[in-house]
Structures are given as structure tokens and as C-alpha cells.
Amino acid sequence: MTSLPKPAQLVFKILGPLEVSGPSGPVRIPPGRQEMILASLLLEANRIVSTDHLVDLIWDEEPPETARTQVQICVSRLRKSFTDAGIDASLATRPPGYILQTAEDQLDLNVFHGRVAEARVLIKEGRNAEAAELLRAAVALWRGRCLSGISSETLRTKALRLDEDRLTAIETYLDLELELGRHHQLVAEIGWLVHEHPLRERLRGQLMLALYRSGRQAEALETYRAGRDLLIEELGLEPGEELRLLETAILSGDTALLLERGPARRPADSDPGPAPAAVMPYREEKPHQLPADTADFIGRESLIQSMETALLSRAGHRAVGVVVVVGKPGVGKSTLATHVAHRLGEEHFPDGQLYCDMRGTRSEPMAAKEVLGRFLRALGIPGPMLPDDMDERAEMYRTLLANRRVLVVLDDAASEGQVMPLLPGRSGCAVLVTSRARLTALPGAHRVELDILDTDQALELLGRVIGLERVAREPDAARALLNTVGGLPLALRIIAARLAARPHWTLASMVHRLANERHRLDELTHGEMTMRASLSLTHDGLGRDERRLLRLLSLAEGPTMPGWLAGALLDDHRPFPSDLLEPLVDVQMLDVVAVERSGEFRYRFHEIIRLFAREQLIAHDSEEVQRAALERMIGGWLAIVEQAHRKIYGGDFTVLSGHAPRWFPPSSYVEQMLQDPLEWLDSEQANLCSAVAQAATAQLDELSWDLATRLVTLFEARGYHDQWEQTHRQALEAVRRAGNKRGTAALLTSLGTLYISRRQPQESKAALDAALALFEELGDAHGLALCRRDLALLQRQQGADDDALTLYNQSMRDFEQAGDIVGKAIVLTQSAHILMRRGDTHAAHTQLEEALEIYRSVGYVGGEAQALRRVGQVLAQRGEHEEAERTLTEVLEMVRRTGDVIGQGHLLHNLGEVNAEMGRVEQARGFFDQALAIREQIMDHGGAAVVRLGLASLLQRTGDRAGAGALLEEAIATFRERDMACEMREAERLLGLVSGD
Q1: Were 412 and a residue from 360, 408, 426, 443 both cysteine, which residue would form a disulfide, CB within 3.0 to 4.6 Å?
Q2: What pLDDT digit, counting tens, does each position of 154-173 carry?
Q3: Is the dihedral of CA 401, 404, 405, 409 positive or negative?
Q4: Which among 525, 454, 522 has a CA at the least distance from the CA of 488?
Q5: Which CATH number fits domain 899-995: 1.25.40.10, 3.40.50.1000, 3.40.1280.10, 1.10.10.10?
Q6: What's the maximum distance between 2 C-alpha atoms anywhere in the chain?
Q7: Which helix (DSSP H) or strand (DSSP E) does residue 738 occupy?
Q8: pLDDT the model gives residue 480
């Protein structure tokens, strides 16, 4: 469990009176406007708060004409207070308002939410005592009512919601501690809480249960009666059903209210042993993939209502609600869809939202198969469990959504064929699609034709960005401006941002400028002319360096951009590269979409702006300039991926390094990003794959193969087999075209490993043999070691153990020559399995101990877990079952921490086998049941059948022939369907014993 932040780290406190602390002590914030503005910014920390909202907050009615200026002055004074106190927090201007950027541990509210979220994970893992402790620590952050002492009704409403979150956290840890048997200690605490919150029925029920379990039945019933009298007197209501049922159970002495006194009974001669370890369920978090909503969304209410009706009206029918939003570029299709999705939220779709940018207007739209892979992972299916066939993925997707209520948002779809496989099969879900095409072949779809903003809506949007008083001063010019931009929301936002950045410009002057620009582009159609004119005018008003950066940013083809890319593209090594992007954000040429762990912002182009910037790039920058910038950008990705691999493996082990140039982002920035290197790789997967494709297309062959093979660190851990093959095929074409033999061999070796993971032995051997020949020609010991290791694994899987051991020995010598100690340890781990199969447990154990020493010396946790599992199996094979159980339980805890659900399934199965050998029938069955539950949850039907085989063997030993026979018949059907011949023979043999044949 993550260590709790120390109180001294907190800079801002709102869980009680508002307090600010700097390195030298408390910082005084004047009461009144500054206090209210700071409170509002802290409630929305790291999110933009509009100036209009702050104005409304301070002046409930009729704000003065100088209201926006006064807000600006308050913000400036807050900035000065932070600077003078040495507070490391950024209060920045972000149209249409301000954002207070704080680290996670600087604000008590963030710490509270973080601890509650971590507690939820612990509860899912069955670690209730730790979860209760963490929730108590979260509640301890409160120093009174949230934002007490601030009089604003708007802020009080938000604060009351947070006070409610505190009570919910208290009730949750009380539930956990009651289940842990701490009822005696809790009676006084819950009694005080009921006194403070007498109408809260959940607390009253907890007090009744604590009293009853403490042998105080009469007091428990009196607590109910007192609560009933109060509810009737205060609200005229009877207690809720849950409280009434609890009273009935107490009156009847229902033993179900009591905690279990011990484990289930076992035969007298069996060793009870420890309880089965609690299983960590597969990743079942509800997906919340929507982009941020737009703070200044305007109008469209009738369209929104029709969309919501169409999405929700299918509840009583079998068909899925489908809405397609169509319209011209820049009209706001994506903004509208995102807004509607956020409005519906968890109230109507409590199991989450799936979102994908389908890239329909790009040269290569997203394939439905790839989108299915993304969605299945988000729904909890581990990568290695994903079928290769698209139809099988679609079937798995529909099965997972059959009993869930999920909203699926498909943005910028290209065609019906791209969308059809992504439609759920049951009416509990709904699908929201945006497209420039009408998609008329989608069955039962409700189509929404999105048009431009009307005059009133456009004026409201303009006023929100530049200020209503400015619009009021020039009403005729404002309307002329709207006519000039044609009512397109994107064009209007761009022009408005330009005006907001130039408060001394009149609206009339902007109309004149834009009119001249339109005349220059009068060969374009109306919609294109409007957008191109708006973009050209804003682009030409930028400084020289900003224009150059905008052009170069169009080289980035991923969905979003980290701030360091600006530094790489310009070859600028400043410590805060996102500063370079701020001028582009100010004029709406770039959107801020998130804040990274490093504290830097994350950015995104609107597709129209990206295409415009690419046109400018081609027109103004030579191919040499473009290529150099592209090389730096991809070199930056490679440098970070290289460091991520080192953090995971403890060094440059098990991977070949090329000679491509690296570009190094600021070290402090990278250190923050790579606190969890695998998580960072996963979050940047789309950008990294795009970088490989760009490198290959640009014939940067060294960069393409070096980055592609480095990404196997991610692909292998997360089971991204599609991306693994796609990136390697792209890079392979580039290196072959360049005659790059080492790059070709490295990619073929990696593809050989992929085909092993996919159980394609013939394809694997062909790739590895070709790579081996190239490495022998080059005399590359490291490459030979990697090839021979995987060729040995193929031989081992086919039962050719002697050939495998020969190849393993050669591989080990090659790894030693190359100085790759982790590569050597992996060979020791894999070859130990052959020694186990031959019964040479002493030699196997010796090899595994050597491998463990290596893994631990470099800090490679993944290798340590694999070797320890083999150690547990060796110990079980030698009959040292108790030590085997301790070792396997240790590994189970390790894979839990990494979220390796497949590893959990294997280890629970192993623990079941060990307990069966020890005669602990109930314990063994518990482990088998948990292993089976995991396999079924992640839809690993083959793995589930293997567990059924082990469970059937256990039942057969206990005389339960009927139960064993049913399990075996089910397993045999699966083995036959999946061509698992070896497992089927064993199941048929055991079925013969069970049936007496």
C-alpha cells in the first residue's frame, strides 16, 4: 500500500476552514473576494474555472462593469501571495478563465480522494483491514465542515457534497470494521455519530448491528425505536426497508447477523492450514474514457433532448439506442457528443463510458478490430486473452456488455463498416457516433443534422470568451463578425480568442481584417473559406517562433501531445517546454486536454487546425527541416522508452540497441513521468505506435526498428499483440528497403517471440531461423543469444528437451559474452523447467536460486516472480509442501501488486494442487474455485478447462465421482474445441477412472 502523505506536504486545506501554508508557515488570504476565488479554484484544482463563474460567485446579481477586471486583480494578488510565500503552485490564465495547478499531495481534498480510491482497490482485493485504516486516514484530514467560514451559497453547496463524501467514507470503514469483528470497540464511536446525524439510517443500522453483536439486543431495538420516532416526528416517514428488516432479524435472533466463528468443518485428521488467499478480481473498473466537457457549451438544447430520448428510449426494447451526429467540419459534432455523454453520465449508464477517436478523416482510419481490442481491455480482459479474429472479439465484446449499461462514443467515424462491429447486442447500452458521412446503413439509428449556431447562441458564446460588456459596446460589429465566420463554433472560438488576447482591438477592426482575408481566399467554398480565413488571420497574427512551432507540431500524428514535444521539435532544452505552447493555447489553435503527473499539460489539435498547420509546414519549411524535426521528436520518444525499459529490467537487458540519435527531454520531467514506467508506456501507446509508423514512412530505419523492438516491453506485458505485429511489420519494410541487416534480424527475432505468444510455432521458427542466419553473418552475440533462447523455448514446447537444453546452453554463453545478466537469468529460469520435468529437482533449484540472485541484484521484479513460482513448483515436486505453499503465496502477493490477473490464475491453481497433495481438501477446493472464477471472468475458456481438470482430480480422490465426471465432460468439450490434445488425453484418462471403465 502506498505510504500516506505527511501533513507537512499539504499547502492548501479546504476540508475545514480555508488554510494556506508556505515553507515559512501560514499564508494569510484576505477574507472576501480573494478567499472566495481561491476556494473556487481549489474545488476545481487542475481544471479551468471560467471568469464568468467567478463573477457570478462574487456578485449574485448585477455585477459591475468592472467585475472581470476586479477578478483579474484578485487573481494577480493571489499569485503574488504564492510567490512571496515560496509556494510551488501555478495560477495560470487559461481561456475562458483561470486554472490553479497543484501537485496531488498539496491539496487535502486531492489526498482525501486518492486515499478513498486506493481503499476501493484494497476492498476489491479483500484487504479490508488495510482499506479501513486508509479510509480512517482519509477522514482524519477533516478539521471541521468543508470551507467553514465562507459565506458564498454556491461554495457552500459544493462543500456540503464533500461533507457527504466524508460521511460515506466513515460509513464504509465502519462496515469493514464490523465485518472484522470490532463491534465492541465501535459502539461508542457509532453512538456519537448517530447523535450528530440522527436521521442517517445507515449509521443507525450500524449501531444496531454493533450493539446486537455485543450481546446488547435490547439496546439495539431501542436504537431502532428512537430512530423511528424521530423520522416520523421530523419527516412524517417510516424507516427504510433495510432498517426495518434489520429490526425483524434482531427480534427473531437471526444468526445470519453474527460473524462466522471459524472455517468450515474438515475431517479430523486433516491439517486445517491457512485460509485460501483472497483473490484480486480481474480489472473490472468502470471505463471512463470520455474527453473533458466544454465549460462554455452554448445552446443546442432541443437537439440534446432529442439525442437523449433516442439513446434512452430503448430500455424496454431489445434494440440498442444509436444516435449519429452529422455535420460539416468545425460545426461542433464532437463537442456536442461529448457534452451529451457527460450529461447522461452514470445516472443512466452506471457501468461507464467507452470512447474512441475513429480517425475517420485521417488517411488511415482506426480498424474496428483494434478498437475492439482497446474496449475489451478497458472492460477488464487482459491482452493475452484477446482473440486474433475480429468476429471472435466482437462476440466477446457483446458478451461482456450483455448485462451492463455502458455508453459507447465513436467520434469521427468513417463508415458503417467501421461502426457495425462495435454495436453492443443488448438494449442496456447505447452508442453515440459523430461523422461527416450520414451512415445511412446503420440500423435503427437516429440522425442529428448539426447546423451552425444561430445569432443569439453565437453572441452568447462570443460574450463568454471576450466579455459581455465588450459585445454590448459594439452590437452591430458583433453581428457582422458572426456573419463573417458563418456561425461555425470552431471559427468563432478562434476569432474570439484572438480578440480576448488583444483587448485594445475593436470588434469592427476584426471584421475588417477577416473580410480582407476572405477576399484573398475567395476561391474556396463557403465552409472552407470561413475556417481557412479564421485560421489564416490568427496564424498571421502569431509571432515568428509561434508560427514555426505550430507548423512543426503538425508532424505529431498521435491523438494527444505531451508538452516536451515542443522542445524536441524546436531543439529547445528549457526545463518547462510547455511554456512554448502557451501562446498557441491562448489563441485556441491548441487545446489543453489534461495535466500529466509531471505537472505539465497535455495538448490536442482540432483536426482542421492540424491539417491547416501541415499545409503551412509544406509551404514554408524544407524537407530537410521537416526531417530533422521529425528525427528529434521520434528520438525523444525513443529516449524515454529506453529509460522506461531500464527501470523495469534494471538496465539495457534482453533488448538490442540501435544507433539512432536520441533527443533527451528535461530529466526532471522524465523522472516524474516514469514513476510507474509500464503505466507511462501504456498511456502513450497510441503515440508510440504512431512514431514507429512515421519513422518507417520517413525511412528513418534505425529509429523505426530501435523504437519498435523497445516497445515489446509494453506489448508483452499488456498483451498488445496487434500493435506488436503492426509496428514490427512497418519497421521491417523500412529496414529491408534500407538494407539494414541488424535491424531486420532484430525485428524478425521479436516477431518470433510474438508468434510463440500466439501459439504459432511454424511462423515463429521461420522468423527465428532467418534472424539467426543474419546474426551469425554479423557476428552479433547478443542477437544470437535472443534467437537461441526462443528457439530453445520452441523445442521445449514440442517436447524436444535435449535439443532445447543444447540451445539454452549456447544462448547462455552468448548472453554472458554480451554482458546481459538478465538474459542469462531468463535462460536459467526457462531451462529449469526441463530439469523439473526430468525429476532433477536439485539442479533445477540451483539454477533458479542463481536466477533469483540476478533478478534481485538489478531489481527486475517480473523475473523474480517467474523464478519464485518455479521454485514453489520444485519444492512441491520434492514433497516440501509447506515451504512450497509459503513461496507460492509470496508470489501471489507480488502478482497482485502488479495487477497480473493471469498470473493470479496460475498461482491459485498451483496452490490448489499443493493443498490437494497435503490432504487439505476444503482449502484446495477454495483455491481451485478462485482460479476457475478468474479464468471465467477474463473469458479464458482453455485455462478454465485446465482448472476444471485439476478440480475433477481432487473430487475423484474424495469419492465425488458425479461432480468429477461433470467437470471432466465440460473440460473435454473445451479441449476438443480448442485442439488441446495433451490436456484432452489426460481428461479422458481421468474420466475413465471416474466412470469405472
Answers
A1: 360
A2: 888 888 888 888 999 999 99
A3: negative
A4: 454
A5: 1.25.40.10
A6: 97
A7: helix 721-738
A8: 87
Taking the C-alpha atoms of residue 304 and residue 458, their distance in angstroms, rounded to an integer, is 17
pLDDT greater at residue 264 or residue 611: 611
Within 10 Å of residue 405's Cβ, how many Cβ atoms? 18
When pLDDT is averaged across residues 105-121 and rounded to a whole number, the result is 89
The residue that leads in pLDDT, 281 or 827, is 827
In this structure, which amino acid lies at residue 901?
Answer: V
Long-range contacts of 109-115 (CB under 8 A, 24+ apart): 109/14, 109/15, 109/42, 109/43, 109/45, 109/162, 110/45, 111/5, 111/10, 111/138, 111/141, 112/15, 112/138, 112/141, 112/165, 112/166, 112/169, 115/4
pLDDT digits (tens, 9 = 90+) for 734-791: 999 999 999 999 999 999 999 998 889 999 999 999 999 999 999 999 999 999 999 9
pLDDT, tens digit, 9 for 90 and up, residues 37-89? 999 999 888 888 888 888 888 886 677 777 788 888 888 888 888 888 888 88
Tell how strand 97-101 and strand 48-50 pair up: antiparallel
What are the sequence ranges of the domains in the chain? 301-449, 455-622, 899-995
CATH of domain 455-622: 1.10.10.10
- The one-character DSSP state at 559 is S
Q: Which CATH number fits domain 301-449: 3.40.50.10310, 3.40.50.300, 3.30.160.20, 3.60.10.10?
A: 3.40.50.300
Cβ–Cβ < 8 Å for 390, 368: yes
- β-pairing, 407-413 vs 430-435, is parallel
CA distances from 370 to 56, 394, 402, 506, 940 (A): 46, 11, 21, 49, 20
